[in-house]
Design a protein that fits this description.
Layout lengths: L2 E7 L14 E3 L8 E4 L12 E8 L5 H12 L7 E4 L1 E8 L9 H12 L3 H10 L4 H14 L31 H17 L4 E3 L5 E3 L3 H16 L6 H15 L2
Helix pairs in contact: 2-5, 2-6, 3-6, 3-7, 4-6, 4-7, 5-6, 6-7
Length: about 250
């Protein structure tokens, strides 16, 4: 039996979506996809938002079929994978989803909610209000964080402006977990819903690129997420540079 954490997006299929504390959730089949139990909350992968975060305990296999399935599931896992696959789990507790973004994760969740409702006029206002020194302040915050990571030295010489995650630096990819990546994705999703294809262009590599005002508005929200979600990384002046657009337009 392994205790750990499971994040379930609100639009996820399967029984974990309806989990309640005190219940046992069992998959209808021993075949994949299995329940992924992360051993540390810092390792939880957040691809879609919003969602729910549970502390769970994996349940031993109930029969030979489940035992064989879990043996197959474990066979290709590295010793340092940081997660276990399960067919059934006991729901021990439900935690605030903001926990995924660190001690100040509530501020990041507020920004995500704002991004989900972002209208084009507000995006233009955010872009116009972004501080001219925000990129440098963002870079300085990242450098401070990298200085404390076990493998951060390999990345400190690069320009960190606009960086969303550096997975190789340590056990956590950014100062606020997956918060920066999820926030950028949330703005892009809103832009697509509000403005459609006009919010994007395709570059020479065939990749979609988010256009202004959405791109700079997203940068302004990322600035605020870094300043408010990891305040230990910024001094007062940089905190003001990073959060000024959000405080001006978002009213915070």
């Amino acid at each position: 039996m392994v205790e750990g954490f499971v994040y379930v997006a609100d639009d996820s299929p399967g029984p974990m979506r309806y989990a309640r504390v005190g219940e046992r959730v069992r998959l209808p089949s021993a075949e994949p996809p299995w329940i992924v139990v992360d051993h540390s909350v810092h390792r939880v992968l957040v691809v879609r938002w919003p969602g729910r975060l549970f502390r769970v305990a994996s349940v031993p296999p109930a029969d030979d079929e489940e035992r064989a399935a879990l043996a197959r599931a474990a066979a290709n896992l590295r010793a340092d994978a940081g997660y276990t696959r399960a067919i059934a789990v006991d729901i021990l507790a439900e935690l605030p989803a903001a926990t995924l973004f660190g001690p100040h994760g509530a501020a990041v969740v507020e920004l995500l909610a704002y991004a989900d409702q972002l209208a084009e006029p507000a995006a233009r206002d955010l872009a116009a209000a972004r501080h001219p020194e925000a990129d440098r302040a963002y870079d300085r915050a990242w450098r401070r964080w990298l200085a404390g990571q076990p493998n951060g030295a390999a990345y400190r010489d690069g320009d960190q402006a606009g960086v969303l995650a550096v997975p190789g630096a340590g056990s956590v990819g950014s100062p606020i977990g997956h918060g920066l990546t999820v926030l950028w994705r949330r703005v892009a999703e809103t832009a697509r819903r509000v403005a459609g294809p006009a919010a994007f262009e395709v570059d020479e590599d065939g990749d979609e690129v988010l256009l202004d005002p959405w791109s700079t508005a997203a940068a302004a929200l990322l600035d605020a997420a870094l300043a408010l979600g990891a305040p230990e990384l910024v001094d007062a002046a940089d905190a003001d540079r990073l959060a000024s657009a959000w405080r001006t337009v978002g009213g915070r």
